[in-house]
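Figure 2 data, in text form.
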Amino acid sequence: MGDVLISIVNYRSFGKTEKAVESIYDRSTEKYSKRIVIVDNSVDKEEAEKLVGLKARFPEIELVFSENNDGFGKGHNLAFNRFCDPDTKFFVILNPDVVLENDAVGIMKAYLEEHPECAMTIPRLLKPEGGMQKAYRRELTVRDMFIRSFTPHLFKKRSAYHTMQDMDYSQPFKVPFAQGSFLMIRSEIYRELGGFDDRFFLYLEDADLCRRVNMVSEINYVPAAKAVHVWEKASGKNLKLFMIHLGSMIKYFRKWS
């Protein structure tokens, strides 16, 4: 039971997950009830023991240990399907590398309650050193993904347009593609849409979910909600992850072509 279910998928990132959980408890008010589910895809005994220790500090946390690393979207779907009861109004998708700066969960919850036309929200996501993350984008195109993946320092005007640099970030606005590190969605909408398409192991599952949400409702940026995201962009540094990212791009554009 609870107003909000917060899902974190952990993959050998206990230190970050611990900080994320601590920030939720440190910043949250007592005006709403919440539950946190951590789905551990690490398949690692030492990581599991650390998470059990975290639960000892925060007994309300639910832990799920996957037998295999089945990916980001499937992990969040598991948390939702197992723990999101009919009375839980909102579902939060939270990366381990996100630390709340204020009661972002409560602020986004209040926004959704005040704006029935909106189904999903994304907060103001900040860089650790300050400044905004480019976590808000217009509809994905092959052209924009090619520029982002292979020529990030060229076509600066196009990149700025794609990442919505022309918007007023002091005010809420509609977002075609909200990067999936910290999202709050109405549980009924997530359930109706079937959650993440778990054919995407990693990458672009957020773009796919956003596209489906925007077909039935809208996604809004909520500037009053603030969090720091340590966005490592690992696929640009690791060949294996880059290939997974490339495969997800192919799946995405085949699905929506």
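Caption note: The radius of gyration is 17 Å.
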